[in-house]
């Protein structure tokens, strides 16, 4: 009893800055959402959150590095959820296993925008499908890497529409946009926050959004499902820590995010960018992770997809 009484009390988490790793270059949706999460954690804990961009392998480089970090709560990563669950399915020698990570929260989610280059003959999704069927393999679609939301969204579209289009992977959304504007690729499923200004400025054409219903701020834009029945693509952005991270650290970060994304300023920011503020419970993000793994695992198996 005396020995127990002499033990020092455990310090409250966090005692030092948290490093939040973003798996893509600056400027894309993960970077913007990651910096918002960093701000939320910093304000909640009175400790600066250091945001570190570490692009590569469609997000897998960063997730793999964080999976091997000390599981103390001070190193976390914000990948695209689709890419997180599909990378180990697509890659035989993947840099991480799903079970090597612990989900803290699903920060936000939102549809993508099916955007095309200017000058493309097809002006609607129906015309795009007809064009692709008339000229198999002639159209290209760009993604931010193998297994990312942009890639799997394109593969789901290809599969459900029954068309042959060619995948062109890049290291990040910013590179995709450069070549899409330049007309070096034909189309991509990009984030609404990336698409908004480019479409408004006439640099890209928005054919459709990918949710079940028209996206907020995109009410005049059709949904893909009007032409390809049943199509739906929602990107989701989980905050993850290495497996073995203490329950208290996970719980405190989860609570901070849940409260933070619901604050008027953060909620308004996410909504304006085309996202829905979520800040899910730990149980909710775990259930979503399992459901997404099942959905995309089925597509990967049926389509025979693999990295490279």
From TrEMBL:
Gene3D superfamilies: Bordetella uptake gene, domain 1 (3.40.190.150), Periplasmic binding protein-like II (3.40.190.10). Transmembrane segments: none annotated. It comes from the Bacteria. Belongs to the UPF0065 (bug) family. This is Tripartite tricarboxylate transporter substrate binding protein.
């Amino acid at each position: 009893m005396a020995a127990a009484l002499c033990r020092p009390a455990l310090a409250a988490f966090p005692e030092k800055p948290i490093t939040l790793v973003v798996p893509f270059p600056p400027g894309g949706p993960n970077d913007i959402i990651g910096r918002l999460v960093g701000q939320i954690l910093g304000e909640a804990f009175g400790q600066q959150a250091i945001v570190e961009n570490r692009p590569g392998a469609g997000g897998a480089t960063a997730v793999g590095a964080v999976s091997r970090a000390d599981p103390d709560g001070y190193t976390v990563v914000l990948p695209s959820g689709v890419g997180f669950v599909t990378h180990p399915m697509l890659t035989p020698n993947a840099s991480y296993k799903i079970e090597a990570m612990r989900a803290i929260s699903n920060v936000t989610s939102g549809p993508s925008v099916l955007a095309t280059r200017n000058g493309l003959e097809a002006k609607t999704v129906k015309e795009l499908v007809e064009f692709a069927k008339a000229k198999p393999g002639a159209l290209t679609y760009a993604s931010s890497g193998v297994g990312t939301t942009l890639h799997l969204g394109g593969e789901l579209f290809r599969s459900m529409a029954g068309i042959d289009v060619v995948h062109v992977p890049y290291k990040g959304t910013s590179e995709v946009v450069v070549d899409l504007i330049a007309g070096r690729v034909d189309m991509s499923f990009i984030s609404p926050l990336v698409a908004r200004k480019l479409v408004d400025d006439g640099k890209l054409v928005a054919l459709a959004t990918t949710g079940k219903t028209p996206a907020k701020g995109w009410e005049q834009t059709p949904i893909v499902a009007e032409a390809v029945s049943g199509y739906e693509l929602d990107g989701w952005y989980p905050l993850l820590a290495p497996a073995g991270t203490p329950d208290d650290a996970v719980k405190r970060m989860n609570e901070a995010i849940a409260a933070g994304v619901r604050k008027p300023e953060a909620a308004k920011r996410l909504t304006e960018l085309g996202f829905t503020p979520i800040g899910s419970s730990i149980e909710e993000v775990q259930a979503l992770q399992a459901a997404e793994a099942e959905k995309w695992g089925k597509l990967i198996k049926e389509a025979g997809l693999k990295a490279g």
